[in-house]
Amino acid sequence: MQILPKTAEWLVSEMGYGEYEIKGDPMMLYRPLISVYFGAAYLRWLSNFEGKERNEEFVVRTYRFGPKKATHKSTLDYWQRYLSVKQNLPTRRKNIDSDSSVPNDPTPVVSVTQKTLDLRDSFKGSYKENFVILLYDNAKVGDAWKYWDSRASPEDMEDLWKHSNVLKEWVMSGEKRGKVQFSLDAEKRTYLSRHELKAVAEIIVSKHFSTGEIKP
């Protein structure tokens, strides 16, 4: 669920979610932890829209199209596609061809879905062009978008290395500290594995949530 720059700016200026500085650069929102942070903040706001506890369908249909389209027929297909793919996030695949190009598809690959309104259980993946959070612009995957280390802070990378499942996955795929490659799918598009996505969500929750509430 890639968040719109204007929504992220609103969350910073009006709602106080300033843990990650986007500095007017919309490409910052494609960094995994930043994307999940602002996505979680927006999910939390939608889940209690107008002071009422909202269900998963409301949140999904309004995340992309706004609260006015919560029950509109135009968002029904979006919701149904969400349901059909929410359990299909791929496992990690080693990046073999480092000079590959990304298809001319402006939509990134990895998704985050909301299973429940408890954000500790919210982030489950789906592997489709819907509900996307990251990872690339429609350009070649140069070094800037090839490595985790250029898309996350040293502190966040250390947290990822400490995550047992991510550590095991990265060691098995031959990743080295300071040069961890993103996975590529069959079309050479970058994505997060199940373990990576789960780790990112857990890091954001542990740092910025308290009893289910995100901390600005």
From TrEMBL:
<dbReference type="Pfam" id="PF01464">
    <property type="entry name" value="SLT"/>
</dbReference>
<dbReference type="InterPro" id="IPR023346">
    <property type="entry name" value="Lysozyme-like_dom_sf"/>
</dbReference>
<protein>
    <recommendedName>
        <fullName>Transglycosylase SLT domain-containing protein</fullName>
    </recommendedName>
</protein>
<dbReference type="InterPro" id="IPR008258">
    <property type="entry name" value="Transglycosylase_SLT_dom_1"/>
</dbReference>
<feature type="domain" description="Transglycosylase SLT">
    <location>
        <begin position="1"/>
        <end position="78"/>
    </location>
</feature>
